[in-house]
Backbone:
């Protein structure tokens, strides 16, 4: 399976059997084909920098995704133990999220809404508006 940026080689980290790893090389060709094949992945990629710097995944998001079978316990625990900053935790989640099943994008937006912070609420609305406009 793939992360936002391309192919991966790590073991299963999503509850739906997906896998992924962080790959920082993005080509315009792969970004273009991603936009056509998966509008949700494209929206996450377009908002990556803003989401990475603004989303606090420890504020309900990780537990929400875990309790809704979007991410595995091992991914949740790895994000918490391997990443030392809020930004790196959000980055790892965003890198892995596209390989976590068809409902992962919607569940991520729902997690942002459920966290009840104004920043997360605004980001959830932005993601849904962008997803609606890209289909």
Residues:
């Amino acid at each position: 399976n793939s992360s936002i940026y391309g192919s991966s080689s790590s073991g299963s980290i999503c509850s739906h059997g997906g896998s992924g790893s962080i790959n920082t090389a993005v080509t315009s060709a792969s970004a273009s084909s991603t936009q056509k094949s998966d509008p949700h992945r494209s929206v996450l990629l377009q908002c990556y920098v803003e989401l990475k710097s603004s989303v606090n995944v420890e504020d309900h998001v990780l537990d929400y995704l875990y309790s809704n079978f979007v991410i595995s316990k091992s991914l949740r625990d790895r994000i918490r133990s391997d990443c030392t900053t809020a930004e790196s935790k959000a980055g790892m989640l965003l890198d892995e999220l596209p390989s976590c099943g068809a409902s992962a994008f919607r569940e991520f937006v729902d997690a942002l809404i459920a966290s009840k912070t104004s920043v997360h609420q605004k980001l959830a609305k932005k993601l849904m508006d962008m997803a609606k406009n890209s289909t």
About this structure: The CA atoms of residues 11 and 19 lie 6 Å apart.
